[in-house]
Amino acid sequence: MKSLGQLRRSGALDVHRIDADGLLLGSSRERLVDVAFDGRRIWSFWVVRDGEQRDDGIHLVWPKPLRPYLDGVAELTITDPGSEAVLFSETVQFGARTDRIEVVNPAGRPLAIDKSLKLVETFDTRDAAHVEPLLDAIEEVLGALTKVGLDAFLAYGTALGAIRDGGLIGHDSDADLGYVSTYDHPVDVIRESFRIQRALTDMGYRVTRYSAIALKVHVEESDGLDRGLDVFGGFMREGTFYLMGEIAVPFRREWIYPLGTASLEGREFPVPANADKFLTATYGPHWRVPDPAYKFTTPASTIELFNGWFRGMRTGRAGWHGYHKRTIHQKQSVSTVAHEVAERHPDLATYVDIGCGRGADVAWFADRGTSAIGLDFQPYAYEAEAERRADDPRVSFQLFNLLELRHVLAVSAWVARTPGPRAVGCVHVVERLGRRGRLNMLRSARMMLAGTDGTLHLQFLSEKGRDGYARRTGARQPLDPAVVAADVAESGGRILHEVRERVSAEPGSSQVCRMTIDWNA
């Protein structure tokens, strides 16, 4: 096995072609390279690992988030990040435009591809003044975790930067913290994590959850940026160290505690006692050699363990975030379900929209004088409408995850205490749920409607056409109405009314199914 240093070889790179699709390289040797536009690093990759070997060479495809920016001119350089030797340099033009390519966000701040192939603000684009608020946020969250009884420390890339370089890693984009529980059983570690979340919430922090033992704690930095710091839970069990995300290795607790310190951008922060053992467990024995294209290669056995113990609560969230981001400028219309509910329940006091998305139905009911609650597990979707309706007492938005039983029970019980009569709508959600999620949705609706003669109104894709309707609605794949009917029967409900109709008169149009369901038999 060659070290990363041995793989970094000098010499020019054999570049056959650069176009809007990607790069075609003639070299079959493995090497790590940086790609820069006009002198600023945009992307890093390993030639063989990340490329596709073809008859004419190795093809590297531009990361998907970068492609919309590839219209214009740039001085493209490829360098060895270790020696900074220039391996290739050429002025290139993509598309028809002749002005310089600028990979920036709407505020004009530079973006680059990170290790997860996301386009983000990396630390090498932020000056000292921009870094200070992040350091303040790290100190604040570490202090808050101390107050709730945890000895937390810098973890993952944040620890690597502090211990190896004394600063933030230029190609990194976030801050990671970790802790090791005093408990050794996964159930107890989970219970502790939810206790931590409640305590942080009581202290005024907004907290979102990745998994049963991993959180994001949101802090508003002094420059106004909402900074989310990831807090990964860990524990020791039978000589193995488990740290949520990637790590399950033989370890000793004394290699973590008592904590040591390391300097990060001139400030001292807690880190594991044995830095070499910790970073070797995280990044392997070559952690001292920078690798801006590093990818975690988590063993399948570790993934299976973590999935079984802790994961499953964020399934689909990234997909919905992508959908709402892609359709942010798409005109919103009030759903057929909303109109049906208004007609069936003229005396409605509270409307509940499960999977409310951007909140069009919620706003429509509120404008009619009806209290409305929007529930969604992707807060990005309803954020703008929630801000617009912040002073409207008829409107509430709430994070709601149908894969997390705590949400299903707690939020549903809260809704059940709101004024009746009540009705529940759920439009193009069940297609994206597995059986457990569908049954949780039905259980939730039943709880919300308890004590009323209200009904649940479902709409879902029952037949996918050639009209792009599935993509426009985020439904993706159709769901057999017979499957939904079986789920309804299992939940103790009954289908009062069912209709299937084409979404347009055009040939090959998609079909939707709408069901009206109650539990009053």
From TrEMBL:
Top-rank taxon, per record: Bacteria
Full protein name: Methyltransferase domain-containing protein
Source organism (scientific name): Nocardioides alpinus
